[in-house]
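Quick review question:
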């Protein structure tokens, strides 16, 4: 039995050291993103000159004029909480944002600091990084169960013990007690994080199997209302403006919608799918489907009448994003998230005293501690850039993928750039350049639609990394010759 527990301890230590750096990034950015609505309002705040209905009508007219929105197409609006701005608009080709003063953000995905932070959170800004984040979530789940086996015997004897006299005991006690106190929270995030990150993988298996490539059929079976197919016949009464459909949605829902889909556009089969927050249950949203101009919804979906698959998915979403219970839940989850960071720091500091100095794991763990400590710097730099860069600035699109990581990694690289550490920095620069090259290849295989900004940023970053690696390498060679 002792041998078995020793093996579990070894696995726990190794896994903990390996996944702490990416897990710290995911946890910290997740805490910030709890307040994404407030961050969006702060980033995109403008003096109000349009009502929400006026902004919707202007957006639809503009999309029709430029040929993006055609008869039979889908038009979706996503008003922000509160005043409705920024208003995200999609007509099947990416997302635009309309601000309260009429300003248009042409690429609301890459032109938003909050969205860039979200891509760091769920994919670490890497192509296919969502699978890496999913693997980290699965390993976190293994680590939690493993940690219970490793620490439970001592926890029963040493409950609430905090030995402040010894550094290694202090960090170990912090690690164990915070881990047990936040265990339900940690298990929930490990499970829901893995489910969301690997959802594309599950869907791919279903599409290859029984659904034969019909993604709409999967969503319909899960309980997500799907818009009807276009008939090719025009609407008898003509297309109602989105502002009229917004008012009708508000009346039927009894609240302002946070999602409004009108489809098929200018077609006889047109329906509206709309949803709003109710704020009383775990799954707070109420979803309706109705025919424009009618007073009775075709379908009304709440927590009470959801199918099992949709109920599980929406429950996971509500738990993961803290969408239930209002601000109290967000602050509670934020405090628990800070406790999780404390647990990771405690474990890493404890491991630092047990690892062999100078070994690869020792250096990885030490650099992970520096990276985790510099996360607030990178996040603040990204949010400030989003708030104060002009909306039409190319830097909003080209620099966002790099601002966070440059600011976060700078404290990691700087101490290594002295003396013999310069060689290690050179290797880091060259390996980063290689990863950037792989990322460019991945984007080229996917096609450039919606990815041009990232491609340009990666190309510029590749040039910068190659230049830095060359300078460091040449300087290292010169020092060696001297």
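Suggested answer, residue by residue:
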């Amino acid at each position: 039995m002792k041998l078995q527990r020793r093996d579990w301890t070894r696995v726990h230590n190794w896994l903990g050291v390996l996944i702490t750096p990416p897990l710290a990034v995911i946890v910290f950015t997740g805490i910030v993103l709890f307040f994404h609505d407030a961050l969006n309002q702060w980033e995109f705040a403008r003096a109000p000159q349009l009502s929400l209905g006026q902004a919707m009508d202007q957006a639809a007219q503009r999309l029709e004029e430029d040929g993006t929105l055609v008869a039979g197409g889908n038009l979706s609006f996503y008003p922000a909480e509160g005043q409705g701005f920024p208003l995200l608009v999609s007509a099947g080709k990416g997302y635009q944002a309309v601000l309260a003063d009429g300003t248009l953000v042409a690429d609301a995905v890459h032109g938003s600091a909050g969205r860039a932070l979200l891509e760091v959170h769920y994919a670490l800004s890497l192509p296919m990084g969502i699978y890496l984040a999913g693997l980290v979530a699965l390993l976190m789940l293994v680590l939690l169960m493993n940690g219970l086996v490793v620490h439970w015997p001592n926890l029963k004897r040493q409950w609430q013990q905090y030995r402040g006299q010894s550094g290694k005991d202090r960090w170990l006690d912090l690690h164990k007690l915070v881990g047990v106190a936040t265990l339900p929270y940690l298990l929930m995030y490990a499970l829901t994080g893995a489910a969301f990150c690997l959802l594309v993988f599950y869907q791919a298996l279903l599409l290859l199997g029984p659904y034969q490539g019909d993604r709409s059929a999967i969503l319909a079976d899960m309980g997500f209302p799907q818009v009807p197919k276009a008939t090719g016949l025009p609407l008898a009464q003509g297309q109602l403006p989105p502002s009229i459909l917004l008012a009708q949605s508000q009346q039927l829902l009894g609240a302002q919608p946070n999602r409004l889909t009108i489809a098929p556009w200018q077609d006889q089969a047109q329906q509206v799918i709309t949803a709003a927050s109710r704020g009383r249950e775990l799954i707070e949203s109420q979803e309706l489907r109705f025919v424009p101009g009618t007073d009775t919804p075709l379908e009304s979906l709440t927590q009470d009448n959801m199918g099992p698959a949709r109920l599980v998915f929406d429950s996971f979403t509500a738990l993961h994003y803290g969408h239930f219970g209002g601000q109290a839940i967000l602050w509670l989850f934020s405090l628990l998230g800070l406790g999780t960071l404390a647990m990771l720091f405690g474990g890493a500091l404890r491991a630092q005293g047990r690892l062999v100095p100078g070994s690869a794991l020792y250096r990885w763990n030490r650099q992970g501690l520096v990276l985790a400590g510099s996360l607030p710097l990178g996040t603040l730099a990204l949010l400030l850039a989003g708030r104060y860069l002009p909306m039409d600035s190319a830097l909003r699109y080209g620099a966002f993928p790099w601002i966070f990581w440059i600011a976060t990694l700078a404290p990691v690289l700087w101490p290594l750039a002295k003396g013999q550490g310069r060689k290690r920095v050179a290797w880091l620069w060259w390996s980063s350049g290689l990863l950037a090259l792989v990322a460019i290849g991945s984007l080229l295989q996917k096609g450039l639609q919606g990815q041009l900004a990232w491609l340009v940023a990666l190309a510029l970053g590749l040039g910068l990394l190659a230049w830095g690696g060359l300078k460091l390498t040449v300087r290292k060679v010169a020092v060696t010759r001297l």
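Why it works: The chain has two domains: 5-43+116-200+321-473, 48-102+224-306. Residues 48-102+224-306 form one domain.
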